[in-house]
Amino acid sequence: MPDGAVPKPRLRDLGITIGAMPTGPLNAITDVAGVRVGHTTVIHGQGAHRLGEGPARTGVTAIHPHGESVFTSMVPAAIEVLNGAGEITGRSQVDEYGLLESPVLITNTLSVGTAHRACVEWLCRHEPSLGTQAFSIPVVAETFDGYLNDIAGQHVTDEHVWQALDNANSGPVAEGNVGGGTGMRLFGFKGGIGTASRVMTLDAHHYTIGVLVQGNFGLRQDLLVDGVPVGRELGATARQAPAKDGSVIVIIATDAPFSDRQLRRLCKRGSLGLSRAGAVGRHTSGDLVLAFSNAWENRVDRFAMEPLRTMVQVTDTRIDDFFVATMEATEEAVLNALVAAETMAGRDSNIAEAIPHEQLIDVMRRFGRTTSTG
């Protein structure tokens, strides 16, 4: 059955609502018109670890910024790092030009090279000018899944990357144990992919902020849900994987016309959204945030010959709602990854348990949060 064919529960299905701003129809990054997401999930083997054979609990996630070629129609972008114990390729060029020129790929730490090479090959098949008139440096980000996955076996292949790129679509986004998030852990529970969105109106114009995260960070005691110390409350009631902080990738998309400078400001609010869910940014954590705007009026034609270019951007004094939207959507995306993830056994029979939904609801109720369950 293809990824996403069976919807997983989400935070709001448990009666828990984050923030006050309205969501988009899907409450997903794909509420930003044109954004497409694809996953390839790699699961095989069980029991004892055998290098190169498994067990494999990994994958790759692809994000296309709009419905056309981002190589030929580049978009304003920015990258920020809260704590840098991780990798996102292409950052120096995004910093220099303020533009994103490739799909974004997210995978495990030791499969960055494969994803990068496969993306180059995929682009070469789709872009005849690549390698003759122009070049591209793909953006690939990672988090570490070695607790559940034979990560040194590098089970993500070129074909897996191409599948994620080719099968990406603009519909509902599969969450939890899928794509690059397959083998990830979050706050001592099973983690993975999560997404959320917020919509707002600015002088009769409707805009969307969409966020996708690959969550693999946090200790049990850090976890906050709408300000409630859920991690501390659940600490004695559920088995926890080893207490070591990890990493998170945050992708922020919007259709609002922003400059790369303003997108860098959104990235910082993405970090604030992570902290609202309990992120600390410890020494071993890689907290990497990328934001892009696919507003058509600010896309850059790679082959345009005009010497001058006009840009449109939201006035800085009207940007606050976008800041709040980014914080809320990032926080909810992290919690959606947590709620959607299912218990998984992997390498050497290591187990990452799903957060217990009923216990989560009970904690929220005891702290005076209204839920629609029970």
List keywords for this structure.
globular, four-stranded mixed β-sheet, L-amino peptidase D-ALA esterase/amidase, alpha+beta, 24% strand
Describe this structure in words.
The mean pLDDT is 94. The chain has helices at 91-97, 112-126, 158-166, 230-234, 260-277, 320-340, 357-366; strands at residues 36-44, 56-64, 73-84, 99-100, 104-108, 139-143, 185-186, 189-190, 192-202, 205-216, 247-254, 286-293, 300-301, 344-345, 351-352. It has 374 residues and is α+β, with helices and mostly antiparallel strands. The protein has a single domain, classed as L-amino peptidase D-ALA esterase/amidase (4-Layer Sandwich), CATH 3.60.70.12. Helix 2 crosses helix 3 (158-166) and helix 5 packs across helix 6. The two termini are 32 Å apart.
Count of domain modules: 1
Strands, total number:
15
| Fold-level CATH name | L-amino peptidase D-ALA esterase/amidase
Low-pLDDT parts are none
Distance between the termini: 32 Å
**In sequence order, what are the helices and strands, one letter per element?**
EEEHEEHEHEEEEHEHEEHEEH
What is the average per-residue confidence, as pLDDT, rounded to a whole number?
Answer: 94
Shape from CA axes? globular
Number of helices: 7
Described by strand count, sense and barrel closure, the largest sheet is: 7 strands, mixed
Report the top-level CATH class. Alpha Beta
**CATH architectural type:** 4-Layer Sandwich
Radius of gyration: 20 Å
